[in-house]
Amino acid sequence: MIVGVDEGKMAEAKGTDEGEGSDSEFDGIRIEGATAVREIAFAVEYAELSKTLPATDERVYINVKTKENETFCIELCLQGFRIVGRKFDTVAEEADASRYYETIYSLLDNVSPEYRFSFGEALKKRLVELQDDRQNEEP
pTM, whole model, 2 decimals? Predict the structure, then answer.
């Protein structure tokens, strides 16, 4: 799964490879990783599941470039999301001490002010749309 953001526009997500990993846990962690990539695409420059680091039934790696042009390699495992490297496809030795986050959103909220801003703007836009929809429904 690759999702890139080009000049602030989310590129079309490409489907995951079918038939990879028949184990349901493996599929589950890959699906969760691919879903995280799709869901953050609007607020980062680039996000993809790593094609280099090994995916297992317990963990996958996500490469993310923030709007501040910082790069991260993020591990998703049963404990949650954590930064394991400051370059794509890199697991640093000190990664064992890094903090786990329950969601990719909370991790990015902590490291990227632009992500926080983009998230707030998207939320505000959606609330305005909902308000407009309600007003159009009233007789």
Answer: 0.74
Quote the crossing angle between the two packed helices 113-137 and 104-111, to the nearest 10°.
Answer: 120
Q: What is the 3-state secondary structure (H, E, C) of the chain?
A: CEEEEECCEECCCCCCCCCCCCCHHHHHHHHHHHHHHHHHHHHCCEEEECCCCCCCCCEEEEEEECCCCCEEEEEEECCEEEEEECCCCCCCHHHHHCCCECCHHHHHHHHCHHHHHHHHHHHHHHHHHHHHHHHHHCC
> Tokens at residue 8, please?
């602030």
State both tokens at 58: 């317990």
pLDDT in tens, 57-111: 999 999 999 999 999 999 999 999 999 999 999 999 888 778 999 999 999 999 9
Share of the chain above pLDDT 70, in %: 81
In whole angstroms, give the CA distance from residue 51 to residue 32. Answer: 16
Whole-number Cα distances in Å, 59 to 32, 55, 84, 122, 134:
10, 6, 12, 29, 42
120 and 99 Cβ atoms separated by less than 8 Å: no
